[in-house]
Specification:
Layout: H1 21-35
């Protein structure tokens, strides 16, 4: 999987939700992947928060 960028999990604190934090973090990962010439990116999103 050398041509891929893989992010296993991303959790955002409940207090930070709805403020674009996750979007900014994912965009930064995407920028890093592009900079490292990793053309393959796949996102799978779970919108339901997991119980703590």
């Amino acid at each position: 999987m050398k041509d891929a960028c893989y992010l296993q999990d991303l959790f955002v604190n409940e207090a930070a939700r709805g403020h674009g934090v996750a979007r900014a973090l994912i965009e930064r990962v995407a920028q890093s992947a592009r900079g490292a010439e990793r053309p393959q990116r796949e996102y799978c999103v779970e919108r339901t928060p997991l119980p703590v």
